[in-house]
Amino acid sequence: MSSPRKRVLLTLVLSAVLVMPTGCWSSKEIEDVALFTGIALDKGQPAPIEKEFESKGATYSKRNKLMATLQLVPFKSQKNQGKKQDGKQPTFLNISGSGDSVLEILRQFSIRLDRPLMGHHLKVIIISVDLLRKQSIEQLTDFLLRDNEIRPSTLVYVSQGPARDTLMSKKLNEVPSFHISKAVRNRARTSKVLKPVTLSRLDSLTHSKKSFVLQTLVTGGDELELSGASIINATGHWIGSLNQENTECLAWLSGDRNAGVIKTDDWNGETITYEIKSLRSKITPQVKGDQISFKVEIHTLGRLIETWDEQSHPTTNDYANALDKRLEDKLSAMMEELMVKLQSKYKSDVAGFGRRLAIENPAAWKKVKEDWDNVFSRSEITFAIKVRINDFGSFTED
């Protein structure tokens, strides 16, 4: 191509770039939409404002199977629009409605708000235990999975108590849905926080027709805590909870986390705290005829990070070996408590034993996979645990 023709073509391309509009073709001004960043689903009951509307004839055909609460941001009240904010104005608005269809409830909000709802920035979905006892999680999230406005990366939680309470806060400049979505970053500090489950991951979990766990949220006063795990069975219903120590053990057992803390008492009844620096776990299935058993090996290295015994001499080999044994006993007891809950109380394999069997012995798995939770509950599981202290931290020794 000749040089003049190149210059002409380059000029045309640059001209086209300059006149093309920037941004998304379908973009809307943020002031023109009602962005919701959190949705809480509770057992069905009319919200107080709904009762008032209904008393004045504002009704439509529905059954109150669930209540949906949306958290809208940013929220500006009419009386404060155009005025300088003093930092004491609410940064969000929660709106609730009841019915038997998540989509219809959201459409009802359209006749109460002055802006159309938009879910592109939804951060969290919280579902209450009470609702999951009655309705399956697959039913409750069906619309959210189908709606192309909702991002598949939205995080899903279960609340112990009303889900709408997790979206409440009196703290200035705090948006609860943002707080919840960011709290998972603390997994780097503790093994009590589960690996977050996204909406797309939830879809695959429900279609597997196997039991799984979701992070539990609890509220108290004006605080919120990620505390333990909720067990969802193969039919998508809540069947029970694991406490914080159970959740730690689950993470260590499945290899999801290689950090955390083990706390026990020494022989004088004083607290000792061990910080895990590395952890390896291995689940080995063993099949003999119709009998399926598992051997679990857990090896950990870590630091003696705290001891309350003023008379101790932590650097001696005898002392370290004795502490190793006490820590092994503690971890063994923690694992035993978890297995009693999973095998006897809930009869649900949420720790990955079936997954290991499917990988290492597909033929055996094929025979039992349709009734796996019951087979799992009868399986013998033995543990081989080694805890080693290889770091005593910084201290002064006389």
Please describe what this structure looks like.
The structure is a single chain. The protein is an alpha/beta fold and 398 residues long. The protein has two domains: 30-77 and 88-242, no CATH class; 247-391, 2-Layer Sandwich (GMP Synthetase, Chain A, domain 3). It has twelve helices and 13 strands. The protein has helices at residues 3-19, 48-55, 102-109, 129-134, 137-146, 176-183, 199-208, 244-254, 317-345, 353-360, 362-368, 372-378; strands at 34-43, 66-73, 93-99, 117-118, 124-128, 155-159, 212-220, 223-232, 238-242, 260-265, 271-288, 291-307, 380-391. Strands 1, 2, 3, 4, 5, 6, 7, 8 and 9 form a nine-stranded mixed sheet that branches. Strand 11 and strand 12 form a beta hairpin. Helix 5 (137-146) packs across helix 7 (199-208). The longest helix has 29 residues, at 317-345. The N and C termini lie far apart (85 Å). The relative contact order is 0.09. Residues 22-26 have low confidence and may be disordered.
Short characterization:
By secondary structure, this protein is an alpha/beta fold. It is 32% helix and 29% strand.
Helix % is 25-40%
Order of helices and strands: HEHEEHEEHHEHHEEEHEEEHHHHE
Determine Rg (CA atoms, Å).
27 Å
Q: Which overall shape is indicated by the principal axes computed on the Cα atoms? A: globular
Instruction: Give a short account of the largest sheet.
Output: 9 strands, mixed
What's the mean pLDDT score?
A: 87
Number of strands: 13
Q: Which segments are poorly predicted (pLDDT under 50) over 5 or more consecutive residues?
A: 22-26
Give the N-to-C terminal Cα separation. Answer: 85 Å
The helix tally amounts to 12
Which band does the percent of strand residues land in? 25-35%
Q: Find the structural class using helix and strand composition.
A: alpha/beta
Count of domains: 2
